[in-house]
Amino acid sequence: MKIGGIDLGDRPVLLAPMEDVTDPSFRLLCKEQGAAMVYTEFVSSEALVRDIPSTVRKLEINDEERPVAIQIYGREPEAMVEAARIVEKARPDIIDINFGCPVKKVAGKGAGAGMLRDITKLLSITEQVVKAVDLPVTVKTRLGWDCEHKIIHELGLRLQDCGIKALTVHGRTRSQMYTGTADWTLIGELKADPRMEIPVIGNGDITTPTEAEAAFRDYGVDAIMVGRGAIGAPWIFGEMTSHLHTGESIKIPSREKFAMLMRQIEESIQSKDERRGILHIRRHLAATPLLKGLPDFRPTRIKLLRAETLEEIKEIFDEIQQQYFSA
């Protein structure tokens, strides 16, 4: 599959953009595990235009994680165009526009999925951003605002007319947030429309290699994007790509999985400090499937999330591995 001139190979698996998750360390780890392309945390266009330091830092990428996309969001055309031009100078491979974030502080202000309530403005922003930069521009969005307005089929065709090079669709409406089950039916129908010539990327509830295979087989998408299923589990890309390309499901040893998590923790501490680095990584520790199924899962998880130093976390990891994974 190609996005513009960028070849992502056959049946690629992409890392979704996620706030406070897809930092440089996590992106590189997922890339090493098999992610065909990775995305930054989403970047506020207005904060970027105002040169807010914490937002500008999100533009930091390195060659080892390529191809990489920087995702921007906003509700004002002028700010989105200026932000796209600033992002282009950071030299990502792709600029992605977020029309899908459902959280209140974004969608409630008319940005992200909030744009699904103003399609005219959404299309205008897309067209202006495409014309403002030379890099390929893509869009990530949802089925629609709510169940009465699932407009993705028509919207996808109109976005294609704006000049985007690929479209990612999360199989939920904004009103659903992350509840219920992602509906891939409309994603498949859009992909099957002969008028749809750009790649269609499916997103939502892909957490296992067999689910990844079914998404390609049943809905014909060009690629899949994994979001929450990768939090605390960067090895999911190795498991999925192996299954998709060889038909065999690899078994990554637990010690390697613990090593990946420890690398994330250490690099988080290095980029911040011990206290802030551990706070930042707790979302991965809370979500990791590595501890699920242990006899004392709940108290072990609580103990891990209450740890305040790297040494404490190392001791807990050692105890878990010796008790449950030493065989």
Structure write-up:
The protein has 327 residues and is an alpha/beta fold. Helix content is 45%, strand content 13%. It contains 14 helices and eleven strands. The chain has helices at 24-33, 45-49, 53-56, 77-89, 104-107, 119-132, 152-162, 185-192, 209-219, 236-246, 254-271, 274-287, 297-306, 310-324, and strands at residues 2-3, 6-7, 13-15, 37-39, 43-44, 68-73, 94-99, 137-142, 167-170, 200-203, 223-226. The N and C termini lie far apart (42 Å).
Sheet of most strands: 8 strands, parallel, barrel
Overall pLDDT level: 95
Q: Give me the count of strands.
A: 11
Give the CA-CA distance, first to last residue.
42 Å
What's the multimeric state? Answer: single chain
**What fraction of residues sit in β-strands?**
5-15%
Helix proportion range: 40-55%
Give, in spatial order, the strands making up the sheet with the most strands: 3-4-6-7-8-9-10-11
Radius of gyration in whole Å, from Cα? 20 Å
What would you call the structural class?
alpha/beta
